[in-house]
Each structure stands twice: as structure tokens, then as C-alpha cells.
TrEMBL record:
Main function: Catalyzes the oxidative decarboxylation of 6-phosphogluconate to ribulose 5-phosphate and CO(2), with concomitant reduction of NADP to NADPH.
Complex formation: Homodimer.
EC number: 1.1.1.44
Keyword terms, alphabetized: Gluconate utilization, NADP, Oxidoreductase, Pentose shunt
Protein name from the UniProt record: 6-phosphogluconate dehydrogenase, decarboxylating
Reactions performed catalytically: 6-phospho-D-gluconate + NADP(+) = D-ribulose 5-phosphate + CO2 + NADPH
EC supergroup of this enzyme: oxidoreductase
Lineage: Bacteria, Pseudomonadati, Pseudomonadota, Alphaproteobacteria, Hyphomicrobiales
Amino acid sequence: MSERIADIGVLGLGTMGANLALNMAEKGFKVAVNNRTVEKGYALRDENGEIGQNIVPTDSIEDFLSRLKAPRLVLFMVPAGPIVDEEMQRIMPLLSPGDIIIDAGNADFNDTLRRSRLVEETPFHFVGMGVSGGELGARHGPSMMVGGARETYASLQPILEPISAKYEGEPCVAWLGPDGAGHFVKTIHNGIEYADMQMIAEIYGILRDGLGLAAGEMADIFADWNTRGLSSYLVEITAVTLAEKDSDTGKPMVDVILDEAGQKGTGRWSVIESQKLGVGATTIEAAVSARSVSSRKAERELTESLYSSVASAKAEFHGDKDGLNELEAALETAKIIAYAQGFAVLTAASAEHSWNLPLGEIARIWRAGCIIRSQFLDDITKAYDGAEPPANLLHAPEFVARVSAGESALRRVVAKAALAGIAVPALAAALSYFDDYRRGRGTTNLTQAQRDLFGAHTFHRTDKDGVFHHQWPAV
Ligand code: NDP
């Protein structure tokens, strides 16, 4: 019988699993590992010097589980979907009461709800945990969004806190709520990431096609913006990617990369869930759609040839200091609106699922380690941690001031892009949402009138309580 020496077990040694295991091993935890391709566990131990000494490779699932201290912590890092169910079916008959399964992949939170209910019927525990930060985050400090029972988190905290990213010394990991809360928050994190990246890409489009700047010049602009309000990992890597040269051709790397974006589903899930909750997350929708349109390269080329006669007005963008300041302010303002939408989805989901999501805490654990990490998230934390947390971020005094200051820049940039024929779907979505959300009287009174005319769907009146139907003229 092998000695039960491991503090935690990692099942799945792909990019994320291997790096998380090394991160844990480096922090002094003994980590049992198991992988479909068994050799990867041995390689992880043998190729990582002293850190590797804390890795315990195993040949079978039985061997793996036999090396774990009680209660066993079994962390899954396998592709999301049916493989998680298959692996759960494989290990559950071998577990003991109190053991904890942690699914740390990018699960659809609906699957996490289902799995949580399934495990509730057993003496085991199930934790759905979102992990952000990619390969480097997993290795040196990810941001982790933990769901499941609060009591279960007490068993994980001593391992998760040391391996997490730190923002000014504070660990970027927290228990966020029961069952699917962690994976839901991770999904919306990714949705916001989509919107943020799309808006940056649209500003890049203006700099490239509106101002005719070269990649290297744009790198300097983004690097400059990264020193102020827009300071963030995504803006930082924008500057880095724009500055990079292709060794084959000597051209900027971005100029030799095909303009077809991939997606793995979390952005789409964010949109689906926001629609189910009745929350407009238009910037995320625009970003997901833009990736879909981008992947239809041949169709876009055909359309370009058919509409080549459509003249775009001469771009009125200016590459001087004022012109660049305007683009910077527009991006910053649209970004606030996108994050407000993401947090509005979280607010609605929290009410729908009785999760009581700690919104300030969520912004706090996103400040480091994850892809959307930024200075700006600290401002969001402060807004939610204040004496009167806002119902929507756009109501927080600090953001009212910032959006009021930047709104005209966003308006001018979107208008000029429209005239110049430069696509800015997410920036435009942010502006339109803002204009819709900030007006007390909208236009759906007309929609209600139409619905009542063709379907007797009834309406409310502005001057009397009750539900009304009007006898409209026959059409
Ligand atoms: P990889 O593709 O790098 O690794 C997948 C792992 O799962 C491998 O160890 C693989 O084993 C194993 N595996 C694949 N299929 C099976 C199967 N049928 N049965 C058993 N094991 C299997 O994935 P990642 O590490 O990138 O991602 C893991 C999870 O983390 C996913 O849910 C992903 O969405 C999520 N994630 C990924 C991030 C990233 O930046 N990559 C960031 C955040 C989350 P083998 O070695 O034998 O192929």
C-alpha cells in the first residue's frame, strides 16, 4: 500500500493542469498527478529539478487516489464537457466520504449546477472553480473563482491562496457562492474579456485604416496609454504584439496573422446567459458576433468586391495629440460601459440563483492573475465596497463622472468611424446602450402599441395603474 503523502491530486496534465501542478509543487505542496498519457506525469517530475520532487506521478487512477491524504482533493483539468462527466463516473466509486472533486476547467455553469446536484446525493463534495490567467497564470499565480459549499472551500483555501496571483499582497482567489457561482463568474469574466479585446481591436482598426499608422507606431501609442487610465494586461500585450516582428519576413507579426478569430464558447455562453436573464450585454454580443464574422473570411472578401463602389467619407481622424487623446478617452469610456454590462449580468444571475455574489470581491480577485486584470478593477471594487453599493456600475458617482467626461469622445469616435466606413461594432454598441440606458423615456411604448394591435398583448399606461388593451383600427 503506497503512502498517502499528497496534499492534492491533479487529473489532466495539459497546459493548465501541468502548470497548476508545478505552481502547487513550488509552494511546497505534494501533488499527485495522473494523466491519460501516463508518461507526462513522470516527465513533469523529472524535468523540473527541485520543484519536480514534490510531484508524485501515478500509473493508474487507483494508484493516484491512494496517494492522496484524506479528505482527498481531486482537481480536474481536462477539457470541459462530457470528459468531466466520464472522469467523475470513473473516480466516484473509488472515493471515500468527505472527498472533494474540483472541476477547474472552463465548464458551462449549467453543467456545474447539474453535477453539484448529482454529487449532493453522495457523501462527496463538488466544487466548480473558474481559473483565469492562461498558461503563465496557472504556473505563477492565477485568479480563481470558487463555487460550491462554503465549508468545502475551507479545505481548499490553504492551497489555493498560496498559489493564487496577489494584488498588493491580497490573494486573487475567493469563494463566491454555491454550486455554479464560480463557473458563472468565470464565464462572464471571459465575456468581458471578449468585449475588452474587441474594443481594443476596433481602436487598432481606426489607427491602422483611419490614420494609416504602422504597427510599430501603434505599439508606442498603446504602451503610452498603458501608463494611465487604460493601464491593463490587455493594453500591455497589445503594445507587445504590435511591436513584434516576424522572423521569416521581417514584417510586423500582426501583419502576417490572418484576421480570423477563434472562440471556444465562453463568450457565446455569456451572451446566452445574459439574454436568459433579460440583461443587455450588447458589447459582449458585438464582440462574439465580430469573431463570428471574422471567421467568414472568404465571404467578407466577396462582399468587399461587391461593395467596392460604396465610398466611405474621408476619415476625419487626426493622429495629433488631441486626436489620440480622443481615441484613448473613447476606449476608456466604452470599457466602463462594457464592464458595467458584465457586472449587470452578474447582479441578475445572483438574484436569479440566490447566490448573493460578492461583486466587490469579484472585482478584487480579477485585479491580478487573470486576463482582464487592470488598475480599473480596483476602482470597481471601491465602488461596490462603498457605503452605498450601486445597483449598476453606471450609477456609481466615480463612474458617472468618468463616463460624463468621456462620453463626447466616444460619440465623436463612433460617428467618425461610421462616416469613414470603419467597423466599430462594440464601441458603437457601448454608446447606443449608454444612450438607451440613460433616457427615462424610451421608444418601446410604440413597440407595445404594435404588440397590442396585432396580438392583444396589452400595455401599461403612463397615467393610470392597471393593464390595458386598446381597440385599434382594423388593418
Ligand atoms: P489541454 O488540451 O492542454 O489538456 C487537456 C488535458 O486533458 C490533457 O492532460 C489530456 O490528456 C486530458 N484529456 C483530454 N481528453 C481526455 C479524455 N478523453 N480523457 C481523459 N483525459 C483527457 O487543455 P488545457 O490545459 O488548455 O485546458 C484544460 C481546461 O482548462 C479546459 O476546460 C480549458 O477550457 C480550461 N482553461 C484553459 C485555459 C488556457 O489558457 N489553456 C485557461 C483557463 C481555463 P493527454 O495529455 O493524454 O492528451
